[in-house]
Amino acid sequence: MSSIRYALLTLLAREPLSGYDIKLQMNSRIGPFWKVGSNQVYPELSKMEGEGLIRLQGTEQHAYRPVRKLYEITEAGREALIQWTLERGGVETVRDDFLLKAYNSWLVKPEEMAAQIEEVKKQHEERLAAYVAKVEELTAMLDAPDSHDPIASTISVVEFGIQYERLYIEWCEKLLKKE
Amino acid sequence: MSSIRYALLTLLAREPLSGYDIKLQMNSRIGPFWKVGSNQVYPELSKMEGEGLIRLQGTEQHAYRPVRKLYEITEAGREALIQWTLERGGVETVRDDFLLKAYNSWLVKPEEMAAQIEEVKKQHEERLAAYVAKVEELTAMLDAPDSHDPIASTISVVEFGIQYERLYIEWCEKLLKKE
DNA sequence: ACCCACATGTAAGGAGTTACATGATTAC
DNA sequence: GTAATCATGTAACTCCTTACATGTGGGT
Hints:
The structure is a homodimer. By secondary structure, chain A is mainly alpha-helical. Chain A has 7 helices and 2 strands. Chain A has helices at about 5-10, 20-25, 40-50, 75-85, 95-105, 110-140, 150-179, and strands at about 55-60, 70-75. In chain A, strands 1-2 form a two-stranded antiparallel ribbon. In chain A, helix 2 (about 20-25) crosses helix 3. At the A-B interface, helix 1, helix 4, helix 5, helix 6 and helix 7 of A face helix 1, helix 4, helix 5, helix 6 and helix 7 of B. The first copy, chain A, binds a DNA duplex through helix 2 and helix 3.
């Protein structure tokens, strides 16, 4: 279960990063799929360093700022990540508040629900636009289609995001028609 | 934030239920969207009873078994649920392990990843079949299309599930082609 | 004046998982 | 005899969210 550590390793397998970098990438690149707060990143990095999954590559100091600690993945970390990647797990629960709210739509006035649906739809349209831009950016970076290129893997995942947002938007439209 | 209490109220708004009933319904009807364990259900029911959102409708005793406590929603509970339903919230994070694993596919041998993808695809196909059966069952129960019928709301949510599983399966197939 | 970006971290608490405890009954 | 179903509940634990704390420079 404990997947946050694999989320960190996933990013570190590609390039050395600081805790702050990881936090930023989580909230943009694989953004809406995974999120972490600083409270989880820093203690987890320490733990993982203690277990030999990552090591401190070096530190940087820019003027007045706190020391920036760059971590890199170790061979043991890479192996642990590969093992986890091939491990099988159960299907996840979706756990989306709005699905529950839709389940309650029979309780409220149709016009009030419609306003709510429109709002949710708008949020997902914004995400869709961000994903589409991301895929275009990534595709430009990838010259040859190669399944061993990390960028190709990233594109696949973001494409899932695009399909998901499209489905969500279409579903919202179907709900609006029913009201 | 997204608290379990509204999930309980959502079910109780439709019919009086015991904690055990709620647990069962969570793991079948709105199943893979939400889940609860008994550790959460029973304390939360007590809390909600104390706050006047639900009340004990009565108890049943079948032979040797523990007393079955049936709860029903109160007017205050209904109002709280309606308010929450119309409240706006942010978009949720998807948080699916397999998306992270796919993000790591560049690290592993294509044939090993393919086996993993096939396995995941199979799990989602099983879910899809369950949802399709559920929708058919619900549609048969609904005679007139009416947006104030709770069954209509349920169908909408399960239809989301169907679309989601289909998208997941198609995405798996696309991954397999890329390998 | 005030907030944001940078970069590390801690604290408090709520949410969620896994396992356990009771105890008779039915099914393999 | 082993497990599952019914029905309640507790215990121990991990995970995740929200907020705080530090401290300077740059933008509005």
